[in-house]
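[audit] Reproducing an earlier prediction to check determinism. Same input, same settings, fresh worker. If the tokens differ from the archived copy the diff job will pick it up downstream; this log only records the rerun itself.
[audit] input (363 residues):
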Amino acid sequence: YRGWDPDKAVEDYYKRIHDHEKYYETIDEKTWPYIRIINVGEKIMLNNIQGYLQSRIVFFLMNIHNRFRTIYFARSGQSLIEHSYKADADLSPGGWEYAERLKEFVLERRAKSLKERGVDPHERKLVIWTSTHRRAHHTAWPFLATAQAVNTVDGHLMTPSPEPSSAISSVGKTAVSKVSGSALNVKVVEKPQMLEINPGIWDGLSPEQAKKYYPDDWERFMKDPYSFRAPRAESYHDLSGTASHFSPSVRLEPVLIELEKEQEDLLIIGHASVIRCMLAYLIGLPASEIPAIEVARGDLVEVVPASYGVHSQALHFWDGPGRRGPVDPDVTGKDDINFYENYAEDTKGKRNLDTPEPSIIRE
């Protein structure tokens, strides 16, 4: 209905539904399995559902919805120790600057988008997911600090602290920080499943070093970057399992289900390897393309679910320390030896999501 008059589009839509009603048949048969969904999950009726796969399909359908929302993706800020998977280092001075700039850009972009739809940004919650690594959840601190600064207690302005002092509760292994107020309603959730991919024995190596010290493994990796698993490492298949969304061995499966279930605007601050998998899932890219998706630090990827797919675009907002990618390649402060996180930016044939009018259909 692009370019249609809104009233005529609604009239035509209901007419199409009415024309199809004469072909609808009520399912009364009770001997074979079926799922009946009314008004996108308002009511779900099941009959004779058996087995693992059918149960997983039901679970998935019970968590999807059609409420408008925007999903944002951004890499965490630069840390003091970038090249080690095991090191849980805090943000560098440049990383803190990045976190502040990310907050400003996201809030500005989100407010503009919501106002265009006639929605007050102050009335909608912004949910932020991060991994449990410091560089990830510390990148979300400016959002909590801003929310604290604008909230009042007994008429007095609250002063933000370096570490947000909002109450943090743990449910299982997920930590939640929540601050709400008239100016900004935000909730930060730390998810251990969103830790970056484990590079194993390649931890801390550049592509040149991995090729030099482990030539046989490197050759196998180049043949199949998605499925190859270095010794004591994870593969992208272990992380995402895009070829089989419902595999119980997949680390990100519960996060993907929650992603479908979440109805609020969502900002995911994470590691490039995790963001690649989640973007591939949302957009519908083949598994083989996951390792080549470019997720540069300093780009905000915006994904808007639509009726028959998603609209996606990458918005550039940062050129400081830790920046990688084709924009301004001479910027200093790059992380040159974080192999898995920057593989796509170090190779040719990368998949860049920045398109003029993105409209990618999910199959």
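[audit] rerun output stored. Observation attached for the diff report: The CA atoms of residues 206 and 337 lie 4 Å apart.
[audit] end
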